[in-house]
Design goal:
- The structure is a single chain.
- The protein is an alpha+beta fold.
- The chain has helices at 59-64, 85-101, 107-120, 135-158, 160-187, 202-218, 224-237, 252-279, 291-298, 300-325, 340-356, 362-375, 399-406; strands at 3-7, 14-18, 27-29, 36-38, 75-81, 122-124, 127-131, 189-191, 194-198, 239-241, 244-248, 327-329, 332-336, 377-381.
- It folds into three domains: 1-72, no CATH class; 76-243 and 312-406, no CATH class; 250-311.
- Helix content is 54%, strand content 15%.
- Helix 3 crosses helix 4 (135-158) and helix 6 (202-218) runs antiparallel to helix 7 (224-237).
- The chain has a ten-stranded antiparallel beta barrel with strand order 5-6-7-8-9-10-11-12-13-14, surrounded by five helices.
- It has 13 helices and 14 strands.
Length: 413
């Protein structure tokens, strides 16, 4: 019986089948990448409607075929989080109790247990991420961080000069801490047995986290969106998956538009709330007005802090979208579709639940937020994620990571 080869134009998967099994012009779904295409008999694969770019007749035919543009459409690969609040609570409560009983010494092991669970339940294309850090390395960094914190605290209480000197030294070390923390965390993260990495560009780090941070207050905050843009670009463009570097396509204009919208919205609410608050002072309320009316009149005072919180969440959420949507690696790009109102509801309901349970709902809140973030993050890939090459690895100390944790330095995207 005659046979024919059907090839997918998106991923190159091919299969021999009895001739005539698939009608000419039928729409075919690839069993590997799930891409659909029109089958055209006599070509390597059905196309839609451009001629195929590869021949199933072998390498010689492929070389002889004229070059044509790729018709591969990007595949949508979705992130997901499979962990549960019940499982994570078991890890979290043990970590918390052991950190208390050991006066923080267990912190390094607690961090590794936590991240291994969270990373291991973060899935992309059916494969989990892995956290490979050695808790003993983290512990050494934690000891250095604790000593630095104790020196700073003692200096603050007993010697203003020493306190100022240590504060200046710490500020000068922030760019170095950012680089070392990012380097350690990425090299401790892998996907499909291939590690991420980070290029330690200290010159750019001191420009972005040092000089620009000093210039922001001097420009009355007008430089802040640009500084935020440079920080995100620095973190993305110096990151790599194996030997393949990430690229960043967001622009300064995107960041300024985001912050301008947030400031405009906040100013509009304040413009409405301040006159109402003035009226609530009582000068325009008739004598004998009841307490209920006076209480209702004071409610506009709540608008300002609530508006500030909402627009802080708005900026954080949309900046996350902006960064992910502007991140590419090889033939793949990310898309993030978080919504500020959904994030605001998550934070509000999480805060209420944590407060009412004296902190016991922290694992539940963590899982809720992480699941929502992963459900709204996808990769549009035109190639195979297994084609990336590994980069040489070397041991990296966790000093920057642990000192950053103790002093509250956040270098996340």
């Amino acid at each position: 019986m005659d046979r024919e080869t059907v090839s997918c134009p998106a991923c190159g998967f091919s299969r021999d089948m009895p001739a005539g099994t698939i009608p000419d012009g039928a729409r075919v779904t690839c069993p590997r990448c799930r891409d659909t295409f029109l089958f055209a008999r006599g070509t390597a694969a059905g196309t839609d409607p451009v001629p195929a770019i590869a021949s199933p007749l072998g390498a010689e035919a492929a070389v002889a075929a004229p070059a044509t543009p790729s018709t591969a459409r990007p595949r949508t690969l979705r992130f997901s989080f499979t962990g549960t609040a019940r499982e994570y609570f078991g890890i979290w409560i043990v970590n918390t109790l052991l950190k208390i009983l050991t006066l923080g010494v267990y912190s390094a092991w607690a961090k590794v247990r936590k991240r291994r669970y969270l990373y291991g339940n973060t899935m992309l294309q059916g494969a989990p991420f892995d956290y490979l850090a050695d808790p003993r390395v983290l512990f050494r960094g934690w000891l250095i961080g604790v000593l630095a914190f104790l020196l700073y605290t003692l200096g603050t209480n007993y010697s203003p000069t020493l306190s100022f000197a240590l504060g200046a030294l710490f500020f000068a070390a922030v760019p170095w801490l950012v680089v070392r923390s990012r380097l350690f965390n990425l090299r401790s993260t892998s996907y499909r047995n291939l590690r991420f990495t980070f290029r330690a560009d200290y010159r750019q780090a001191y420009l972005v986290y040092g000089l620009l941070s000093l210039l922001v207050p001097l420009t009355l905050g007008l430089l802040y969106p640009y500084a935020a843009y440079r920080r995100k670009r620095f973190l993305v463009e110096n990151s790599a998956y194996g030997t393949t570097s990430f690229s960043f396509t967001a622009t300064t204009r995107d960041f300024y538009l985001l912050y301008l919208k947030a400031v405009a919205g906040f100013v509009a609410i304040v413009t409405v709330a301040v006159p109402l608050l003035f009226l609530a002072g009582g000068a325009f309320l008739p004598a004998g007005t009841g307490g209920t009316w006076r209480l209702a009149a004071v409610l506009p005072a709540l608008l300002i802090p609530l508006a500030y919180l909402y627009f802080a969440i708005y900026v954080s959420t949309n900046e996350t979208n902006l960064v992910w949507n502007g991140t590419k690696v090889a033939g793949a790009r990310f898309t993030s579709s978080l919504r500020a109102r959904h994030m605001a509801w998550l934070y509000l309901s999480n805060a209420v639940a944590i407060f009412l349970t004296l902190g016991l709902m922290i694992p539940w809140a963590t899982v809720r937020v992480l699941r929502y973030r992963m459900e709204n993050l996808t990769v549009l890939a035109t190639g195979d994620l297994e084609e990336f090459a590994a980069a040489p690895t070397e041991e990296v100390t966790a000093t920057g990571e642990e000192i950053g944790d103790i002093f509250g330095i956040d270098v996340a995207l």
